Amino acid sequence: MTTYSIAVLPGDGIGPEVTAEACRVLTAAGERHGARFELQEHLIGAAAVEATGTPLPDETRAAVQAADAVFLGAVGHPSLDNAPSHQRPETGLLALRSLLRVYANLRPITLHPALADRSPLRAERLRGVDILIVRELTGGLYYGQPRSNDGHVAVNTLRYSVPEIERVAVTAFEAARGRRKRLLSVDKANVLETSQLWRETVNRIAKRYPDVTVEHIYVDYAAMRLITDPASIDVLLTENMFGDILSDEAAVLAGSLGLLPSASLGDGTGLYEPIHGSAPTIAGQDIANPIGAIASAAMLARYSLGLPEIADAIDRAIGLALANGARTRDIARPADRTLGTREMGERIAALAQQGGRKSPAGVRAPSV
Q1: For residues 272 and 70, what is the distance between their CA atoms, to the nearest angstrom?
Q2: Collapsed DSSP state (helix, strand, coil) of residue 209
Q3: Which candidate, 301, 284, 295, 353, places its Cα nearest to that of 322?
Q4: Cβ contact 267:101 at 8 Å
Q5: Backbone angles phi, psi at 218, to 5 degrees
Q6: How far apart are the C-alpha atoms of 11 and 352, rounded to whole Å?
Q7: Are 364 and 110 in contact (CB under 8 A)?
Q8: Rounded mean pLDDT of 106-131?
Q9: Is residue 156 helix, strand or coil?
Q10: CB-based contacts of 102: which residues, under 8 Å, 6+ apart?
Q11: Contact assessment for residue 44 and residue 93, using Cβ atoms and an 8 Å cutoff
């Protein structure tokens, strides 16, 4: 039995709850397929600030660099909203991404057939939706310097270089080549010089991929198209802030923010996390949806550990649980019996350990 080292960063709010269920399911699937996971927890975010005074302690930095993969729950707490920037939980997250050199964030948006009625969009508009958002993760406004706020004037800097754009564009083109061979690149090139450079660079990279059709659209139209014609989108490539916003908007297609996973890949150790935040108002109540975290564990097995059989088992187990009527509060109808965070995790873990059967139609992992 092969052993893999996973650095687990539960973080804040509902992070520890959903992380526990992701680890439960990953362990169960590993037992069936001959893999053992050494899961070691470390501090990040508000929990780390409370214990050590910093959102990304040295111990955590060392642990994530030594691990085979990193799994993150969520960071953020309202008690630190007005804290100095070096003590804000989000600062720890940005530092973690830089430390791991993960520059491409993959956010798949697929629809579970059993949840077709959970989206506010009409069913016919959702038919055929299978989107992979590729978001640049370590550049743009979130990282640009200088940045400041003196109480009267605040400054953030939007900066991109050609190499930063090239590497995430290559990731997106490679993904498109393995899918439906369509790439939609998002920018605001009519007003932003950084977007003009983005478009020029994407067009240059496109020459290496003549089999992939490329379309450029402005971010405001991209936001509208995600709702009005989502099935037309295959791979959506975007810079950091635009991708953050658009991928959260895309959660409406699936029916809940709690369903969606992500993988952050680059030159170092892979980082995996659900796309939702720490949701402190529901923390500790056993009502958070752990499926996004569990699906992120499947991506971890697939992309960082090279264990597609375990990833497939987890993806199948999620699909089967939903097909069999398992619902947390966020995806339940009024008449449904709802499961708590732990019970949903236990059901999916049991199915993953059994291996399950073929997933319901439409439930699959993205190709990268």
Answers
A1: 6
A2: coil
A3: 295
A4: yes
A5: -75, 155
A6: 25
A7: yes
A8: 89
A9: coil
A10: 137, 138, 264, 265, 266, 268, 269, 270, 271
A11: yes
Question: Which H or E run contains 240?
Answer: helix 240-249
Show Cβ contacts of residue 60 under 8 Å, excluding neighbours closer than 6 positions: 7, 9, 42, 43, 44, 48
Handedness of CA 171, 177, 180, 185 (dihedral sign): positive
Rounded Cα gap, residues 64 and 99, in angstroms = 9
Mean pLDDT in the chain? 94
Q: How many residues does the chain have?
A: 368
pLDDT at residue 357, rounded to an integer: 54
Structure tokens at 84: 């100095």
pLDDT tens per residue, range 326-349: 999 999 999 899 999 999 999 999
Distance of CA 44 to the CA centre of its chain: 17
Residues of CATH 3.40.718.10 domain(s) within the chain? Answer: 1-103+264-368, 120-254
Rounded to an integer, what distance in angstroms lies between the CA atom of residue 286 and that of residue 102?
Answer: 31
Contact between residue 229 and residue 126 where contact means Cβ atoms under 8 Å apart:
no
**Closest CA relative to residue 111, chosen from 360, 368, 367, 310:** 360
pTM: 0.91
Q: Tell me whether strands 213-218 and 271-272 are parallel, antiparallel or unpaired.
A: unpaired
Hey, what amino acid is at 258?
G
Give the fold, CATH level 3, of 1-103+264-368. Isopropylmalate Dehydrogenase (3.40.718)
Tokens describing residue 311? 């990833």
Edge to edge, what strands does the sheet with 271-272 contain?
35-41, 2-11, 69-74, 271-272, 263-266, 102-110, 130-136, 235-238, 182-187, 213-218
pLDDT in tens, 8-42: 999 999 999 999 999 999 999 999 999 999 999 99
| Residues assigned a catalytic role | 142, 188, 220, 244, 248
Multiple choice CATH, 120-254, 3.40.718.10, 3.30.750.210, 3.40.50.40, 3.40.449.10? 3.40.718.10
For residue 128, the tally of other CB atoms under 10 A from its CB is 11
Rg (CA), the chain: 20
